[in-house]
Amino acid sequence: MEECLLRVQVSEDELQLAVFDYVTRQFLLVERYSLSKGFSGATTEQLIARILRQHSLLRLPFKQREAILISSGWNIIPNAFYQSGQAEIMLRSTRNIPEKARFLHSAFPERGFTLVGSFPEITTEVLETELPGLQKVFYLKPMLEQIFLNETPQSVYVFVQDFRADLIAVMDGKLRMANTFRFQTPEEFVYFVILAYDALEWSRDLCALTLCGDIEAGSALYQSAYKYIRHISFLQRPEEPAVPADVKTGAAMPPHFFLNLLYKPQ
Questions:
Q1: N or C: which end of the chain has fewer CB within 10 A?
Q2: Distance CA 104, CA 77 (A)
Q3: Contact assessment for residue 66 and residue 135, using Cβ atoms and an 8 Å cutoff
Q4: Are the C-beta atoms of 13 and 162 separated by less than 8 Å?
Q5: Which tens digit of pLDDT belongs to each residue from 97-124?
Q6: The pTM is what?
Q7: DSSP bridge pairs for 114
Q8: Strand 208-213 and strand 154-161: pairing?
Q9: Which runs of consecutive H residues, i.e. helices, occur in the chain?
Q10: What are the residues facing 7 on neighbouring strands?
């Protein structure tokens, strides 16, 4: 594994793991583990440590280790108003941030904004202890990079995972809206999406809805959205690097799954 990248993606509810081979330029392995609260009485941090310690593959040396950190504690700040310390204070005033948190700043100078994301300190420390030399990336960074490569004149993008959705609206290469919301039912999901269209004053007949993450065509979420929005598509990963088939079913992984986990390493 000395020529491989180990990448883990961690949210409140799930840990995902992928291994990328720099020689063959493809992902060799993709796995996912539940971090459901109350499982065996362990905390989220204890479950993460247990998974990482017991996985025999992770005892091998890797060329690089990387963590994709998922949380609802983020905001996008125009560069004209951005100052590192002030941005973190602003984020705490608008999001539910743990008292002890790490902050990740990702600049998009050509787009005129900076993404600021937070992640619990205690979880970050567990990852750093179990995976020395870890590099950390806030999960919206690779998604935003993919969106701005997509070159659509007008679209609403929604990333779905863990009963949470992140909504990014772009028009002519410029960010128009960025928000996150939780939902429990398909009706709640489509309500928030329609609310965004109305706030933007964008036509649901003309402006496409572009989906990615844990959502499939034919699912209840997709069908609910299709009742109100005429054009729906999926934001897909690039064809390269290649990814393995599903271990359980042998089926090809949908190209809009794991968009943040399986982006092309540099």
A1: C
A2: 13
A3: yes
A4: yes
A5: 999 999 999 999 999 999 999 999 999 9
A6: 0.92
A7: 77, 107
A8: parallel
A9: 44-54, 84-94, 121-130, 140-149, 186-200, 220-226
A10: 18, 66
